[in-house]
Structure formats: structure tokens, C-alpha cells
Amino acid sequence: MSGTKLDFQEIHGQHPNNSKANCQKDQFEDILLVIVFVELIYDTIPYLEKLYRHQFPNIVYCGPEKPSADKLEYTIIFVDMLRGVTAYECLSAAVRSHPGFAGYFFIRNDLFFNFWNVANYSRSLIWESSEQLGNQVMFEQPRDTWIWWYTPWGLQACEGAYRDVVCLNDEYKRAIIDKKDQEFSWDVENSLNALLWNGRGANMCYRGFANLFYIPSEHVTAFEKLSFIFQKHQVYMEIAVPTIIRMLELSEKTKKLSGIDLGSLFGEERAQNDDSLLLRYLTSNVTYIRPVVHKRKFSAESRTNILIHTLVNRLNQFNQSYCAGLFS
């Protein structure tokens, strides 16, 4: 494990500490932070570095298209994410290209992550947003009016992915009966049982906030395989991620992360342009908040620098509270 991390750091380089001294340096050195871009705004990466690199020595960025050469000083992987519909494949790509970490944390680039809130959480648990908004029984008429269920990337796509998993499980069982030498990298039947158990006897597709989640090493292989199936059917991110997680673990055993979506409260346009909302709602007990626009098309560079400086100071304040809690 340590060798893997050392190789990663040697290859991709360590960036300078961008914050004050912390009570625990490199608190998250065993986690790979995967920051995902849906839009091609890679020039915001230096700002993200200032926010996270001092505590996350290992970061990869992921997006839909290769940037200009001057941005390649950072580790960037590229996936076909259908304009963000299947952005969850970024985490699977990171697992394949950078194996060996204790866990993999996925966040969108327009989200501010107060990582001190999760510093003491178990790295062996799945972490997900507490905003799990609903579910829909498969192969029945949808009852939920949420528009995404009715799109080509909605309920029917999720049902198609489920059928593939069932077929894969049948193939596995036939291989056992026929005594064929066929290896399966994860327990497919256990995933189907977990989904059934979480649905209290019904197979369901789920929907919820999927802009951040953490998968521990114990589950990364199953996540990567399931992600491939869901991506093949182009299942929408906010359906695929909650459903896959329900196929990995019982819901009551996952760690729920609390946060605020300002776009839902005030509308996306105001939330993206009024920084006062961000600072008003960002408190020490909030694990994430979005949207955070690090660079606006028509804004001065100084405005972005002021925002980043303010956010870094907030992280330092949260760190002081965290350290005080440790030693009190």
C-alpha cells in the first residue's frame, strides 16, 4: 500500500502546502480523491489544488475531453460520460489506473467539500449523501413524477442494467454446475441479494444526490464491474450511483453525509453568482455545499482569488475545531 502511494507521488509530484499547519498532516493519504469535471473548465484546477492538496496528497482529475498541453502537469483521466450522465465511470477509471488505495472519494468540481467532517469516519464504510430522494419498483408503472425516470437514461435503462446483472449471475451458476474453470471477480449473487434486501423484498431503482460518494477498497471491484454495466445502459448518474450502492451494502450500514444544494434552494442562476449564499450556509457541520463557481466567464480573477482565500480560511477554522475536539 505504501509503495503504491509512493510511486504515485513520485510520478505525479507533490504540490506545495497551500494552507496553515494542521494537527494531523496528510490525514487522507490513504484515499485517492477523484475530482470530476462535466464541463471543460480545467483552468480551475489550480484553485482546487489550493483547497485540497495539502490534505489529499493523491488527487486525480477526470473529464470528458483532453485539455491543452499546459494542464497536463496534473493527473487527468478522460472518460466518455455523455455530458455528465455517466460521470460515475470516472471513479471506476481511477480504480483501474491507480489501484491500491484504502478508498476512493468522488466529488464534482463545483462542490465544496469540508473534509474535516469525515476525518474520523471509518474508511471501511461506504459514504454517501444523506439526500436519497426516492425509489421506483422495477417493471412497474412509475409512481414518482421525477422527470429523469421517463428519459432514455431513467427507469428503463436501470432495468436493463439489472437484467444484465441477473444474466451474469445465471452464467456464474451454470459455470459452477458445469464445473467450468471460470472466475468472477465479485459475488454477483450477493449484490442481487443486497438490492432485494434494501428494497424489503422488491427490486428497486433508487435516486439521490450523487455528486460525492466514497467507496472503500472492499467494494471497489464490485463497484467497477457494476459501473461498467450501468454505463453500458447509460443510466443517469443520480439513479446509477444510489442503485449501485444498494447492490454493495445495506443502506443502514452506509455513512450518510449531510450537505446543502443551494441550486435547489435558490435556483441555479442565483446560486452560481451569489457567493454570499455560499458563505452564509457554510458552517462546520456541513460536509458539502454546491455550487461553488471557482471561475466565472466574465468575472475578474481577483474575485476568484478572494473566494478561494475565504474558503481556505474556512477550512483552517474547521480544522481548528476538529483539532480542539481531538484533544479536549
UniProtKB/TrEMBL annotation:
Entry-linked InterPro entries: STL-like
PANTHER family: EXOSTOSIN DOMAIN-CONTAINING PROTEIN-RELATED, GLYCOSYLTRANSFERASE STELLO1-RELATED
Name recorded for this polypeptide: Uncharacterized protein
Organism: Acropora cervicornis
